[in-house]
From TrEMBL:
SUPFAM superfamilies recorded: NAD(P)-binding Rossmann-fold domains (SSF51735)
GO molecular function, one term: alcohol-forming long-chain fatty acyl-CoA reductase activity
Family statement drawn from the similarity comment of this UniProt entry: Belongs to the fatty acyl-CoA reductase family.
A biological-process GO annotation: suberin biosynthetic process
Role summary: Catalyzes the reduction of fatty acyl-CoA to fatty alcohols.
Domain Thioester reductase (TE): 17-162
EC numbers for this chain: 1.2.1.84
Record-given protein name: Fatty acyl-CoA reductase
UniProt entry keywords in alphabetical sequence: Lipid biosynthesis, Lipid metabolism, NADP, Oxidoreductase
Presence of keyword Cell inner membrane: no
Amino acid sequence: MDLESILGYLQNKTILVTGATGFLGMVFVEKILRVQPDVKRLYLMLRASDTKSATDRMHDQIIGKELFRFLKDKWGTDFDSFIAEKVVAVPGDVTFDELGVKELKLREEMYTGIEIILNSAGTTKFDERYDIALSVNIFGVQHVLSFAKKCLKPEMLLHVSTG
Ligand SMILES: NC(=O)c1ccc[n+]([C@@H]2O[C@H](COP(=O)([O-])OP(=O)(O)OC[C@H]3O[C@@H](n4cnc5c(N)ncnc54)[C@H](OP(=O)(O)O)[C@@H]3O)[C@@H](O)[C@H]2O)c1
């Protein structure tokens, strides 16, 4: 696939990203917003107690990072409205059924809209406690797969893992 066809494919797409605070997820988010600003929506799943905490984490630990400097400079005073239009912070956790998305309306909206899922949530501690590693890196993947199966128009599930 050449770059033009990838950009064409991403136009107007709705994408769920888990692990967006992580090394890989954050680079993915920045790149999508930079190369295809006509993406429809990015749902960023973050571990947080509620939507406000997830949104705060998103601004502190993702959008506020130096990595987003180019986009900030490009959009200038429109940067905040661009982010508000395209990016939604979702409180969730892959160790739970339905990825821990408790709000029914939001969950239905996600099932209806999401076409692409990037699962980059994972524990990358090689000496992690066994039960924690199992719940995130094994059962978490099962939960993401179940979530993807409930999406009405799934096109791509991209899972990254070391193992
Ligand atoms: N980095 C590489 O070069 C590389 C190469 C090959 C494969 N991989 C694999 O790619 C994946 C991502 O790597 P990375 O380097 O981006 O890792 P990372 O920087 O450690 O980020 C891990 C991400 O997973 C999230 N997460 C952890 N537990 C979660 C849970 N229960 N529910 C939802 N999110 C959770 C973390 O969120 P919090 O902020 O809440 O902790 C964080 O955003 C891993 O599986 C890794 O093994 C990475």
